[in-house]
Fold this sequence. Notes:
Layout: H1 28-33, H2 47-50, H3 57-68, H4 74-90, H5 99-109, H6 113-121, H7 127-148, H8 151-154, H9 157-165, H10 168-181, E1 182-183, E2 192-193, H11 199-226, E3 231-235, E4 239-245, E5 257-261, E6 265-269, H12 271-280, H13 283-305, H14 314-332, E7 339-341, E8 351-358, E9 371-376, E10 381-385, H15 392-408, E11 416-420, E12 424-428, H16 441-455, E13 460-465, H17 475-489, E14 495-499, E15 517-527, E16 542-551, H18 559-565, H19 570-584, H20 589-594, H21 598-606, H22 608-616, H23 627-638
Parallel strand pairs: 7-11, 10-14, 10-15, 12-13, 13-14
Antiparallel strand pairs: 1-2, 3-4, 4-6, 5-6, 8-9, 8-11, 15-16
Helix pairs in contact: 3-14, 4-14, 5-7, 6-7, 7-10, 9-14, 10-13, 11-13
Amino acid sequence: xxxxxxxxxxxxxxxxxxxxxxxxxxxxxxxxxxxxxxxxxxxxxxxxxxxxxxxxxxxxxxxxxxxxxxxxxxxxxxxxxxxxxxxxxxxxxxxxxxxxxxxxxxxxxxxxxxxxxxxxxxxxxxxxxxxxxxxxxxxxxxxxxxxxxxxxxxxxxxxxxxxxxxxxxxxxxxxxxxxxxxxxxxxxxxxxxxxxxxxxxxxxxxxxxxxxxxxxxxxxxxxxxxxxxxxxxxxxxxxxxxxxxxxxxxxxxxxxxxxxxxxxxxxxxxxxxxxxxxxxxxxxxxxxxxxxxxxxxxxxxxxxxxxxxxxxxxxxxxxxxxxxxxxxxxxxxxxxxxxxxxxxxxxxxxxxxxxxxxxxxxxxxxxxxxxxxxxxxxxxxxxxxxxxxxxxxxxxxxxxxxxxxxxxxxxxxxxxxxxxxxxxxxxxxxxxxxxxxxxxxxxxxxxxxxxxxxxxxxxxxxxxxxxxxxxxxxxxxxxxxxxxxxxxxxxxxxxxxxxxxxxxxxxxxxxxxxxxxxxxxxxxxxxxxxxxxxxxxxxxxxxxxxxxxxxxxxxxxxxxxxxxxxxxxxxxxxxxxxxxxxxxxxxxxxxxxxxxxxxxxxxxxxxxxxxxxxxxxxxxxxxxxxxxxxxxxxxxxxx
Length: 639
């Protein structure tokens, strides 16, 4: 490779190793299961989608880092929460009239300064690059002045870091040098070098401006000399030429040397054109070369003055952008600042998670029911039961989202929140099926559960949704019951939330109603009005889901009603109810289905004589006889 060639790695100033200490661990499966990230297939909105409000490229890059790296550091979390609080305070009179709106307007017009500086370093001097650099410098000062006008923002760490790191004198010097050399006012669409800045360039430009008159005067002189209309032209790289349309050319033009021709015109050089080449030169190329020389010198002066130093402030702009984004999400979705519990400092604190009016932020646009959630140190496991479609999984997801939002340093979807921070979130919720994956659904469920078992600590949040439903009716409950016992028997138990239909494991002869478990159920109302369209027992087949979590445990899964709502035929549902009734009373399904009903018995009695006569026929005797006679005998029996 030529050592003068430019490589992207040449722009790397330094490299350092980043430690994951101080960050919460959450894997891709869990982020998709909790709808923090979209799986890219179902079209559902994710939590990340709600934060698409950053106005700058550095802001979007910083936002990605914030959202992909939840914190495990109480102080840093509280720092971010305090910044959001200050931003919201500044927006109390309305966002549009606030200084936060002014800051965000500046940020949104700021270009990617890293890209701008890199372009200048490799010699890309397009007008748009110089315009972007000036816009960035102007907005750096504007943002600084806006922040400096607010005592509230000056108390915030991220705004204060910006103020402390911006070199106002440097920014002003860089802008002054730009405007001394470049003309930004004459043409709003283009940037040019100030007229008169460089004497040689000015002379070339003046000659170029006179060129039209010079060419016209030369054309008139040649026309008079040769008696034929002759046009002179200037073409960059070719210089000054005589242009004669085809059909008007004359072989008697003395001293004309053809240079090239088009479909309509011949272009010639003669002594006069060569004299003009010598006198004026290739003006356009000379001007462009001189402009590049001036711009290159300008770039070098800017670098020498400290152009690269403004890159040190750029990350703070990204952080400000992100924190304003967090504040806007908190304001738009009516979120609340959480209070962080430190287990080591708050030994008298009995609760690990206290949420009042908790809701799923992704359902904010719908009619939603909020719930109060409390998990204590003496009951770190919560088991949620309830019918299908009653909202068990939603509760698990919204708790996971709430913890996640807390630890990225954002407000939470609740009226009040007081909670500890977690080292990791482990989930067994949704299984991502793929035809490219040669694993069964239950195998992947077990892999997720294995992760929950082996990676948990006392500072883990474990969310388990419907584990055991994908296998044998005995294996599933047995595995879930054993896993629950495993977590209960740990010396340092993590916070564990489980939703399940397998309530038989809580019978006295199995796990029982362990005192270490907080049992919750989803409240529903079952209608019992008489209705002619009933599905079974002459009762109206209807359940009203209240999506409210209450104390207790329920064994009713509501599966038949769920099937009914999904369009399964009523006769199938009635048959399913019949089978369930047999199982509930301990009956034998084979025997029940082998018994004849009254209608079937009457049919047998009615046709018993015919059946006897038919059975008495010996078909071997008819083997070689007329088939028509056999048909006649059979008809006699039937008729």
